[in-house]
């Protein structure tokens, strides 16, 4: 699977090309809105999200009512289909609301047939021929995405979205390269188990790394909700603008925080030479963490997505396991005794073998072990795989290898502050 990153590039667009680009924005907006209007229904079960069905019903009309390139029509349809699908998902979630997607005129999606990349410029398809635009890049790109992705032969430029902000044009370009190793052939490697939590440490690994602070994340969320509530009661236009502003700031802060947690997880996997990271299946995790809020569930999902995104570059596979009883089962050796009284808050003490561990660390070990067992039983060709622990590794046969024998120094019990 290819590794994909995104980079923003400012464009120098000739003054006489602004009008045709602006008209392209408007017609692309019209196309996406036309498809969304067709696919929308007040009954969520009736919302049309299938791209084939949407294309059959809207393509000819959009083509006859616009001057868009055929690929722009298809891109607008795909954008509308994704928005409709997201709305349907939210409506199916208890307590969630969603309204028909509404598109603005400041974005156009460009595919390989509608954009041509050159060394110092690109050409963009519009409703009236092509427009040439020069790239505006930093004079000193050291430490910027340009140095890592833009000027590297390893990364290939793919799809892009064109945006307009304050009379300036920007391309958000997806760049792609093949990972250092093929994750589909990962065999006989160590697995890092990761336990996610609604309180205490946000993520705990089977190697004993305690990452992030769920209580702090929830506290920041509560502060934002309380301030938003006070502003909503005010009801003035300045209050409404402030709500949008603080909402954007909190979104950026929380996403950055989760980025740092996921980065620490991947670093932990690399430190212990792990070829896979194991998480709990989020579809079932709600049963075990019944008090998890929508925000916390979003945080869990985002951590997994960011971890997978970052792990791809190093050829590390991210997989999921069923979460049932991972917090109640003893992870020590071949014990495996499962009982609800094994766990008491942050403390885990096995009623059978008397092993005592931090409860989240015990759960993380079980999550890693579940993936090892799954690979063994499924005949996936990983007979010698093992789960990475704080003090070494444990393979599928129950054989323990100390960390010192593997040339590792081990992981600290707690991570640096995030």
Quick recap:
Helix content is 40%, strand content 22%. It has 9 helices and 18 strands. Helix 1 crosses helix 3 and helix 6 packs across helix 8.
Describe this structure in words.
This protein is an alpha+beta fold and 418 residues long. The chain is 40% helix and 22% strand. It has nine helices and 18 strands. Strands 8, 9, 10, 11, 12, 16, 17 and 18 form an eight-stranded mixed sheet that branches. It has a seven-stranded antiparallel sheet with strand order 2-6-7-1-5-4-3. The protein has a three-stranded antiparallel sheet with strand order 13-14-15. Helix 1 crosses helix 3, helix 2 crosses helix 3 and helix 6 crosses helix 8. The longest helix is centred in the middle third of the chain and has 35 residues. It is globular. The C terminus is likely disordered.
What is the secondary structure topology, with strand pairs?
Layout: E1 3-12, H1 18-39, H2 51-65, H3 70-92, E2 107-110, E3 115-117, E4 121-126, E5 129-136, H4 145-150, E6 156-165, E7 168-177, E8 190-196, E9 203-205, E10 210-211, H5 214-234, H6 237-271, E11 274-280, H7 282-288, H8 294-312, E12 317-321, E13 343-344, E14 347-349, E15 356-358, H9 359-378, E16 386-388, E17 392-395, E18 400-402
Helix pairs in contact: 1-2, 1-3, 2-3, 5-6, 6-8
Q: Whole-number radius of gyration?
A: 25 Å
The N- to C-terminal Cα distance equals: 30 Å
Which architecture of the largest domain does the CATH hierarchy give at level 2?
A: 2-Layer Sandwich
Sheet with the most strands?
Answer: 8 strands, mixed
Instruction: Indicate how many domains the architecture comprises.
Output: 2
**The level-1 CATH class of the largest domain:** Alpha Beta
CATH-defined fold name of the largest domain: Nucleotidyltransferase, domain 5
The proportion of residues forming helix, as a percent range, comes to: 40-55%
Uncertain ranges: 182-187, 405-417
Q: What integer is the average pLDDT?
A: 83
* Structure class: alpha+beta
Strand content: 15-25%
Task: Provide a count of the helices.
Answer: 9
